[in-house]
Amino acid sequence: MQLDRIELADIHHPVVLAKTIHTLLGKIEHAVPITEIARGLDIEDVRVDHFGGFEGMLLTDKARSTGCILANSSKGNRRVRFTVAHELGHFLM
Ligand SMILES: [Zn+2]
């Protein structure tokens, strides 16, 4: 997936960020490939598992140079996809 965080660096509004990512991706025929988008934007790993006590977590360094997203699978795939997108938003903004 050809994405570059440099093109998103000055965007501070979530709707503008999402629209810009969609523009960069072009037409998508199926569900938005949120895990691939995250990996294309410097998330090294997306771990989906039955975690206790949280729905999602972003692990990153102070400069957010890279990151890892944890997503709880207890409430189903739709919730996992939301969580990954939500944590990616934290990483990018
Ligand atoms: Zn949050």
**Strands in their spatial order, largest beta sheet:** 1-3-2
**Tally of separate helices:** 3
The main sheet comes to: 3 strands, mixed
Run of helices and strands: HHEEEH
Cα shape: globular
Portion of residues in beta strands equals: 15-25%
Mean pLDDT over the residues: 94
State Rg. Answer: 13 Å
DSSP summary, beta strand count: 3
Low-confidence stretches: none
Ligands, ions, cofactors: zinc ion
Helix content: 25-40%
**End-to-end C-alpha gap:** 20 Å
Please outline what is shown here.
With 93 residues, the chain is α+β, with helices and mostly antiparallel strands. Helix content is 38%, strand content 19%.
Model description:
- The chain has helices at 14-25, 34-40, 77-92; strands at 43-49, 56-60, 67-72.
- The chain is α+β, with helices and mostly antiparallel strands and 93 residues long.
- The longest helix has 16 residues, at 77-92.
- The structure holds zinc ion.
- Residues 86, 90 line the site of zinc ion.
List the helices and strands and how they pair.
Elements: H1 14-25, H2 34-40, E1 43-49, E2 56-60, E3 67-72, H3 77-92
Parallel strand pairs: 1-3
Antiparallel strand pairs: 2-3
The structure holds zinc ion.
Residues 86, 90 line the site of zinc ion.
Primary descriptors:
93 residues; three-stranded mixed sheet; 38% helix; globular
